[in-house]
Each structure stands twice: as structure tokens, then as C-alpha cells.
Design brief:
Length: about 130
Amino acid sequence: MSILDHVEFAVRDAAASCRFYELALAPLGFKIIITVPPERTRTGGTRYGLGVGGYPCLWLHDEEEPGKGSHIAFAVEERALVDAFHREALRTGGRDNGVPGIRHRYHDHYYAAYVFDPDGINVEVVCQKPE
């Protein structure tokens, strides 16, 4: 398992960017894994998850200023590491963007915490294993 779980970018036109990445990354085995409709997203835009082997590791979304919605997530094997990340990130100047906890909108084992770094990039650490 890679420690890099996924990356997300805000784009001007999610459908156009999805087509670009789907074709450009096809030689690497990327395909559209999931499309999330606007009514199920935080920004009210469409989200596309592309990846290899059935797991969406590249997310594209619209209805947010490009660059502003930049997001990176790191995968860990234990929930305690999610808690430790959140605590240390806040101690070193990060701004809270979501306390550690289950995110049921993704699935029942998605335990994550979110912090904005000093430049406003949304950094996530996630454990997707059952407790």
C-alpha cells in the first residue's frame, strides 16, 4: 500500500479535465472509477475519481476556484496516526479543517482528519481499515 492515498484539484471544467486526464493517463492504466453528482459534493460541482485497479487516486472537481481546492491525502494503517497527525499539524501552525472521525459519506471505515497547511492546501490523513 502506498502512503499517498489521493490528490484532488479544483478545475474550471471538471468534465473537460476528466476527459483530458482519462485520455492522457490511459497508457498508465487510469480509468474513471467514480463520478459524484453535484448534490453529493461539498462544493456543488461534479467530482470525478480516476485511478488504476478500481481505486480513485486522482480527483477532479469544479465549482471552486482552480488551485483553491488543492488537496492531498496520506494513507495510514492505524487510526491513532490520524489523531497524531491532526494534533501535530495544529501545534505547528496548521488550521483545523475537520477533526479526526468517521466520514460516513465516503464509507463506514473512512477515519480521517483534515488540516489547512500555511498556504491553505487541504492536507488529509486517512485510515480506511475497520477499527
